[in-house]
Amino acid sequence: MAQPGSNHDAQNPVIQQKKVIITNNHGEKLMGSLHETGSAEIVILCHGFRSTKENNTMVNLAIALENEGISAFRLDFAGNGESEGSFQYGGYWREADDLHAVIQHFRGAKRVIHAILGHSKGGNVVLLYASKYHDIQMVLNVSGRHNLKRGIDERLGKDFFERIKKDGFIDVKNKTGSVNYRVTEKSLMDRLSTDMHEACLKIEKGCRVLTIHGSADEIIPVEDALEFAKIIPNHTLHIVEGADHRYTSHQAELALVALNFIKTGLQQDKDSP
Question: What's the pTM?
Answer without folding.
Answer: 0.91
